[in-house]
């Protein structure tokens, strides 16, 4: 049943044509998993976010108002804990993931008072975007059923990707600058600390040619220095962090 539900949800998310439709799908499958609430969002101060950000939820209005008034998007303990793992976690594991401050304890106590008694959070780490997550929560007297956690992991990831598509946050291949193989090679060595001259010797090309490849790559990304170029290449997947950290 879990596999069938996952497949059906994935197909429905792919076919969804609006955020409202995705929200309805999340609401339905949240109920199927025995939960009452869901919240999918980027971890930003939502009312004041300088860039497009996603938030879809059915949490109590009282909690949303408190959350935004206190600017908890970047500092909420559940959000902070999700930055330290790539897999979903029950809220009972928060003390093992982060050191809970007195303020954190107060926030968690307040969330329980408004009805968010127990939960499970699926992190979403997308290079070039604010961190995010998708959480599922139960009301008082109910706990997260462990047999549903694998499905919650899948649903959270699929829903977040669907939200990125529908909100326009996800970049398409057409949005990304296209680098030539040689430009990518030059950026690779630049990210590893090599000068244009050193890169030219490694690749067996002229110094002027290496410099021109770097100049054209900076132009395509609209940046002015090597560090910014390497960062953009990392975010676009032209480089990996392993590439950049090797010395």
The CATH architecture of the largest domain can be named as 2-Layer Sandwich
Spatial strand order of the main sheet = 2-1-5-4-3
Number of domains: 2
Helix content: 40-55%
Total E-strand runs: 5
Low-confidence stretches: none
Percent range for β-strand residues: 5-15%
End-to-end separation: 49 Å
Could you report the average pLDDT, rounded to the nearest whole number?
88
Please tally the helical runs, counting DSSP H or I stretches of 4 or more residues: 12
CATH topology group of the largest domain: Beta-Lactamase
Tell me, what is the CATH class of the largest domain?
Alpha Beta
* SSE string: HHEEHHEHHEEHHHHHH
Instruction: Tell me, briefly, the overall form.
Output: elongated
Biggest β-sheet strands, sense, barrel:
5 strands, antiparallel
- Radius of gyration, rounded? 22 Å
| Oligomeric state of the chains in view | single chain
What does this structure look like?
This protein is of the alpha+beta class and 247 residues long. The protein folds into 2 domains: 166 residues, Beta-Lactamase, CATH 3.30.450.80; 71 residues, Arc Repressor Mutant, subunit A. The protein contains 12 helices and 5 strands. Strands 2-1-5-4-3 form a 5-stranded antiparallel beta sheet. Helix 8 packs across helix 9 and helix 10 crosses helix 11.
Give the key terms:
10% strand; five-stranded antiparallel beta sheet; 52% helix; Beta-Lactamase; 2 domains; 247 residues; 5 strands; Arc Repressor Mutant, subunit A; alpha+beta
Summarize the structure.
52% of the residues lie in helices and 10% in strands. It is built from twelve helices and five strands. The N and C termini lie far apart (49 Å).
